[in-house]
Amino acid sequence: MRISKLFGKTLREVPAEADIVSHQLLVRAGMINQLVAGIYSYLPLGWRVLKKIENIIRDEMNKAGGQELTMPVLQPFEMWQLSGRDRALGKVLFSLYDRRERRLALGPTHEEVVTQLAGRYVQSYRDLPLMLYQIQTKFRDEPRPRGGLIRAREFSMKDLYSFDVDETGLDISYQKMLQAYRNIFERCGLPVMLVEADSGAIGGKDSREFMVIAESGEDEIIYCPGCHYAANAEKAVSVKGRIDNGRPLPVAEVATPGMGTIEEVAGFLRVLQSHTLKAVFYIADGEMVFVVIRGDLAVNEIKLNNILKATDLRMATEAEVIAAGIVAGAASPVGLKGIKVIADDSVTSGTNFVAGGNKPDTHLRNVNYPRDFKADTVVDIASARAGDRCLKCGGELASTLGIEVGHIFKLETTYSSKFNASYIDEKGESHPIVMGCYGMGLSRLMAAAVEQNHDAKGIIWPLSIAPYHVYLCPLYREGSKVAEVAEKLYTDLEAEGLEVLFDDREESPGVKFNDADLLGIPLRVTVSPRTLQKDSVELKLRSKKESELVPLEKIVGKLRELIS
RNA sequence: CGGGGUGUAGCGCAGUUUGGUUUAGCGCGCAGCGUUUGGGACGCUGAGGUCGGUGGUUCAAAUCCACUCACCCCGACCA
To answer: Tell me, what's the ipTM?
Structure first.
């Protein structure tokens, strides 16, 4: 490709709307252009990168036994009502009406459609296992798109669905995908961290995310440097320890004038915050929920909602707390009636806690579970934090930020039972198909690759996903034979099947070199009067500082070698 | 949805506080001509603007007021 003909221009200045590095560089390099918030055009260079990623993914999906197909973006809204996900996704689900006033959704993911489709064709256990996938544009009306391609409203995604007869089959499919994903990231030159995750609105278990570590990441990862434990903070667990305050003592009221927060109460009574119980109030789909957790811990709302399964979960307002007859600042589950109580398991592991007295300015000492109060549910709902102890090895947990580039999980029969997708086994009995779901964001992967591979000058594409292999950079001079040599080299390299970006512009060397660096093409070949004096060209790797002179007759072979 | 910020040429910005020599300006980019060519060259000439939109105040609005739209950031939320 001749740069003089290439659609798209590099920008010297950083676009005002771009905040994170991948967004800035992709826009400056003329690879993407924003139409409206979270919606982008891919210009020829960016599109080539996306296609390279797509081909790697397609190759690995096919190798793992996947069959590619494509499903409709426009889907009847009733399907989403049937699965109940119209409510779970809420406004994230784009919807519109056709001319007959029938409501349609723009596909944010395809569990509903693929389950219905598989259900129509799979009849016997002989039809299984099966893996179907597509690479397609998805639509999600994000509350807040951000970071360029990191979180877009229209984006490219690969989604594969596995269908098996039973759990054992699902495990095999799951492992195949796990390996395929590792291969893909490896081939894209992208180091990833595999973390345990919450499966969110899609539902399911054994949820794993592939994270690219990056400052601009949106997800917090809690991991243990000592063992291999790593989890999304939404899901992470840690050692809470036991609070041993001796044998349970009789409950004793104590005056705590003006003390509302845990910090104040603990300070006033001269006890550790971990020796107190904290009450937090939520409204789950309109119903008040009383949450009890040890004073030094924080409630993880994702974990909490996995118990409550509410569509809308939020902290209660002060007015709602008062209206429920609860004494804010001195609330406790002791003697409480008529309100659902969810307790973190930390409250059951220890003795003689300080808790609210349910009277103004009053707390209770020596509160013990279950002697003094009972919870409807006792389960882990605490946030694990960096600095906590690892539950597996006891080491100290650390945290980092990551970009979620892939997410795989087991759906089991959640969708197959709703959409009546079943098969007949050897005995002639009918069973719902056991499913798995495996997503990967291509456009996000592209952004993550830039986050991971860049320097002050620009992008440094890994060879496998670079828009072109070679940046051919002649430095013209009147009366020299540079142009002639460069033209011939361009033709020869293309004939060899190399992907060449030919900077045939009459620009000064600085402009060309800077553009080459910004675009991040892995190999740069410079032809100039200086190199031609030695019958050579200069070869420089984008990822390296040094360059070398290569004799003209050897350069084609040399490049060929570097690329294969 | 709550909080904050920004909308002036393709891009980056100044001008808005205190309305009037502003015919709305600068840098980059773009077009033409000439010189230049190993790390964002230079000269001359030129094209390019509903000052986000609507309404209002005023003799006069990029500038003041009201409403509104868009974009960005933080938070909430999120696959």
So the answer is: 0.94
